[in-house]
Amino acid sequence: MKTRQQIVAGNWKMNKTLAEGCELATEIAQRLKATNAQVVLCTPYIHLPLVHDLIKDVANLNLGAQNCHQEDKGAYTGEISVEMLKSVGVDYVILGHSERREYFGESDELLAKKVDKVLAGGLLPIFCCGESLEIRDADTHIEHVQAQIKAGLFHLSAADFEKVVIAYEPIWAIGTGRTASPEQAQDMHAAIRSLLVEQYGAEIAEATSILYGGSVNGGNAAVLFAQPDVDGGLVGGASLKAEEFITIVEATK
Ligand code: PGA
Q1: Amino acid 237: pLDDT
Q2: Which ligand 1 atom sits nearest the alpha carbon of residue 11?
């Protein structure tokens, strides 16, 4: 039986030159102490092979991509396939980040295809969901996030769904320094888990890791991660500094 895992994933976004990225990965690899959590470095594509070599011998330190294309190969200029990601040692792929949804027009339908492709390739999707401030203010955030999860994931069999990691990231908290309160995070995570119970049953729902993202930092990680349904975090800005990122990893349950 699968058990729920604590996970901290650093989303570097479009930051760091290759040299800077290697320096950051090296420092994280050196500072990371024995931990129960799975730690994932989601670097820009060009960093992946070198960062893979730097972290491959460190227990619980994994490599992630920030996106992928939904087709196997072909005339898709500028895109990267799941096979390519596998060939450089990637374990996890972030899908449906709000920046991809908003700036690159990624729809629920497209994301469902990407989820399928990642799973078919044997990699693990970190599927992002989250509401805008407008939706939060209208008090329809729970329905909104549940609809994103249904549309992106609920076509999956139970065996496939078990491999999925969910990341709840309220858009108003991303990069703004305004984090969700621990209660707001817990409420949403509990609502997500109860939706998973309905679709896949209690055992699978209990075993699913649901990460919180949005201005997680060294100071607020412990109180967020202490919530019963918060199983770690997806971290942007604070993942770019080794010391702070390690503090966040150490804040997991
Ligand atoms: P942030 O980004 O930690 O900088 O708010 C989180 C994310 O977008 O994954």
Answers
A1: 97
A2: 9
